[in-house]
Design brief:
Length: about 130
């Protein structure tokens, strides 16, 4: 059995991204099945994963325990599964829901910086 964690790559400067990652880590409850990497950290190198900074900033990416690089909603599905709560997003993979949810995520990904800044203002958080 592979005990390597599922890794999600987040934009640490995005309020919503940080909050979602923190929520998933709480779900993991210290089991070590979920790892979060901040792609804005100075030591992050997207080339080590065979991708570019533009790509990882464009949408969420994840690294499966077998090293496969995943993108989009599949990252969330796998991350929640790794954190022990696959049922929370299982419905997003249903045949009718999947294309709708995937498109909604891509819309969000394109606008996440603006959405995140609005959320930060509403929550009274300072931008990093």
């Amino acid at each position: 059995m592979n005990t390597a964690p599922f890794t999600i790559l987040i934009d640490g400067q995005c309020t919503l991204c940080r909050r979602e990652a923190a929520f998933m880590q709480r779900l993991d409850r210290g089991r070590g099945q979920l790892r979060v990497v901040d792609i804005t950290a100075s030591d992050f190198d997207p080339a080590a994963l065979g991708t570019t900074m533009d790509a990882v900033m464009g949408q969420i990416h994840g690294v499966a325990p077998d090293g496969a690089l995943l993108r989009g909603m599949e990252v969330f599905r796998r991350a929640y599964a790794a954190a022990g709560k696959p049922w929370l997003l299982a419905w997003t993979a249903w045949p009718i829901a999947r294309p709708i949810v995937d498109r909604l995520y891509f819309w969000f990904a394109r606008h996440r910086v603006r959405i995140s800044s609005i959320v930060a203002r509403v929550l009274g958080e300072a931008s990093p």
